[in-house]
Amino acid sequence: MFLTNRDVIELQAFRHELHRHPEVSGEEQETARRVVEALQRLAPSRIVTDLGGHGVAAVFDSGLTGPTLLIRAELDALPIEEKSAADHRSTIPGKGHLCGHDGHSTILLALARGLSRQPIGKGRVVLLWQPAEEDGSGAAAVLADPRFEEIRPDFAYSLHNMPGLAFGTVALKSGPVNCASRGMKIRLSGKTAHASQPETGISPMAAMSRLMPELTALSHGAPPSTDFTLATVTHATLGEQAFGIAPGDAEIWVTLRTLVDDRMADLCERAQTLVTEACQAAGLQHDISYHDIFFHCENAPEAVDHLEAALQSEGIRFDEGNLPMRASEDFGRLRTVCPSAMFFLGAGENHSALHNPDYDYPDDLTAIGARIFMAVIRKALG
């Protein structure tokens, strides 16, 4: 194993420091600074900062011809209040590392320590700390950054810790592993009125009441069916917070999901038709916008082969688990650049779920995740 006992202690302290100071998508400046500060002591060939926002890339270049492997982690936390008694709990009200991105970032720092001590024999390794994964904007921004071409990989890999999966085991398969999704924001516009004379206004109440069940009824099937669709109403508001005003405006937020990207356009069209019909019936105007757009995540067979070989060499048990899963992952955009694969590392069958207010990344996963990635690197680059 390339990590010493001192490494394990220091890496845990680093993870806890990130955990105490969570920053949400687009605000990861201090998190990135902490990563860069830790990397500078390890003397990679190059450190790229402010990549696609606050992204950081550490390049370990052998100077010899060979493939470029990219390993990705995430910088951002969630806008959720943490409920924990841990000494390292969040110090920022309303924000918390409740998805484990602090742990994923620490796994990459563990790799950086190993690569600094035992240089690769050929090619390059790029360790990417990506910003803004949670809102789906980070990967697109990184790929759009002109400097990305300088570190463009031949293969890309990532992981996500997975509560509900036996600790230290892995779920991995070829093909789709995470769904495409996007947030649909629907604005309904009518006319307010005095609450004593609601008939003089145009209320969106009836249309709103009609649309919420109609939209959720677009849900069909379950992965791995390619016909899978899911519409989830996540937020709704109606009118003003006042007893004297009959409402004239409303908003509905809906998350739309499909197993693969090419099914999303059809789902959006069907949802938009429902909105149009409801608004026409109620005499309302409407506006629709889309947010948090995630491509589906698809594992390339050749990249999966590399991960399977690494898992076998490390004696780590793996199978297809419950893949593909309904959740989305911003890593899906990397497949537009090169063959890519993500695996899911068990955090424990009874571990608190991701995005729960009492979730905390298990520190013992760091060494396991780092071992797997390092095995991939050594097999490919020596």
What does this structure look like?
This protein has 382 residues and is an alpha/beta fold. It has two domains: 257 residues, Aminopeptidase; 115 residues, Alpha-Beta Plaits. 30% of the residues lie in helices and 26% in strands. The strands form four sheets. Strands 1-2-4-3-5-16-6-15 form an eight-stranded mixed sheet, sandwiched between helices. It has a four-stranded antiparallel sheet with strand order 10-12-8-13, covered by helices on one side. A hairpin with a 3-residue loop joins strand 1 and strand 2. Helix 1 runs antiparallel to helix 3, helix 3 packs across helix 8 and helix 5 runs antiparallel to helix 6. The radius of gyration is 23 Å and the shape is elongated. The mean pLDDT is 97. InterPro entries: Amidohydrolase, Bact_exopeptidase_dim_dom, Peptidase_M20, Peptidase_M20_dimer. This is Cellulose synthesis protein. Keywords: Hydrolase, Manganese, Metal-binding. One of its GO terms (molecular function) is hydrolase activity. It comes from Agrobacterium albertimagni AOL15.
